[in-house]
Hints:
This protein is mostly helical and 76 residues long. The chain is globular, with a radius of gyration of 14 Å. The chain is built from 4 helices and no strands.
Amino acid sequence: xxxxxxxxxxxxxxxxxxxxxxxxxxxxxxxxxxxxxxxxxxxxxxxxxxxxxxxxxxxxxxxxxxxxxxxxxxxx
Length: 76
């Protein structure tokens, strides 16, 4: 194995998430539904859905479980 390869347990730096995206991720990782997240953040569910689409696109993540794992790795 070459020393230039990143070990599989080391995460690549994540793209920057906007503060509201990080807050949304925090609520989802804590087990809140999209509607609960929207209410806690004072937003519409559609806005929360849009934030989650952007987060998933930035991070190339497809499932809530993956989002939660990522949030835990950030300490959210």
